[in-house]
Amino acid sequence: MTEERFETVIIGGGQAGLSVGYHLAAQGREFVILEGGRRVGDNWRVHWDSLRLYTPARYDGLPGMKFPAPRWSFPGKDAMGDFLTAYAERYRLPVRTEATVRRLRRDGDGYRVSLGDGDGDGELRADNVVVATGTFGREPYVPSFAEELDPGIRRLHSASYRNEAQLRPGPVLVVGASHSGADIAFEAAARHRTVLCGRDTGQIPFRLGSRPMRAVAPLLWLVAGHLLTVRTPIGRKAAAEIRVHGGPLLRVRSADLAAAGVERVTDRMTGVRGGRPVLAGGRVLDVANVVWCTGFRQDFSWIDIPVFREDGWPEESCGIVAASPGLYFAGLSFQRAFSSMLVGGAGRDARIVARHIAARERPTAGRTARTGTPGSAGRRPGAVTAA
């Protein structure tokens, strides 16, 4: 088994992990970023084909680099993936792709990160570890009764849905009515009779990209980053709601769903009868497809450190885990504010984490450490000017 040592290991090469790397490089710190995908940005490329960001390009940049698109355009998921690739290359961030983390545990005063599926894939030792594996986690959630559905019903989670061509002929039930559910139901309704079920999460009062939206966008961004925070009562209330139920309708609104012919019901799917989905009011739906837009669960079972609450979320403050010095999180939903879950909010949260790491004692002089960038093992990260 090979073993390497670093001052900081960042687990996850999305916008949060790359932003932490940017700020650490700006302070001359030594680190490596572990990305499970084949390429940086693949965490975006795997989404459904028609997905576009819900924030305009002017708010989709990362520290030191604006998003290369018209300010009021809404980039697609592949464009976002390519932007992350270009960002890592521009700042020569030491990213190791196809690096799957199997286990994270304490190792004396530091941490040990085990890679791959077996004991022979290598281990990293670190003084600090930043877990940047996703806003809501990447374990698709479906209710336990999903397996009772008739095998003839096509079942997809939003994580595996790509486009309407995956659906079988016949009616579609989309379960979960936040913005992802609305987007997919709207798309499915072009060729299928579609029912969208789930609680009403509300909707924003204007259309994305409209003149009213452009006029209030700076104010909304201010609210997202400075008012709706974990330090304010209104922010804490919003955090509890969004972490559990998701956000309001954004691009596709109620009127759009109605115009497309989507049947919107606020009853939840509560079970299965005779192989068919059943809603809370007892209605049985005869459908050929079910698309689960029921979100993701935080799956931190690979972290053998007792820092998690009963709800599965880590006990942290702005990403800093007081109970386990040197352990950090980045990119969590409402980690610091509503903006934490947005691409443009990643940089500010990352700066807090990086500054805390830099304030800790540097590792013992004279120890060996190796870093690597994509395609150039052992190369040091390039110079970065802090934003």
Average residue-wise pLDDT:
90
Largest sheet: 7 strands, mixed
**Strand percentage, roughly?**
15-25%
N-C termini distance: 39 Å
Count the E strands: 18
Q: State the share of residues found in helices, binned by percent.
A: 10-25%
Number of helices: 8
Unreliable segments of 5+ consecutive residues: 365-387
Overall geometry comes to globular
* Rg over alpha carbons: 22 Å
Q: Give the topology string: H per helix, E per strand.
A: EHEHHEEEEEEEHEHHHEEEEEEHEE
Classification by helices and strands: alpha/beta
Key descriptive features of the protein:
387 residues; globular; 23% helix; alpha/beta; disordered C terminus
Descriptive account of the structure:
The protein is α/β, with parallel strands linked by helices and 387 residues long. Helix content is 23%, strand content 20%. Strands 1, 2, 3, 4, 5, 6 and 16 form a seven-stranded mixed β-sheet that branches. It has a five-stranded parallel β-sheet with strand order 8-14-9-10-11. Helix 1 crosses helix 8. The longest helix is centred in the middle third of the chain and has 17 residues, at 211-227. The protein is globular, with a radius of gyration of 22 Å. The protein starts with a strand and ends in a 10-residue tail after the last strand. Mean pLDDT is 90; it is low at 365-387.
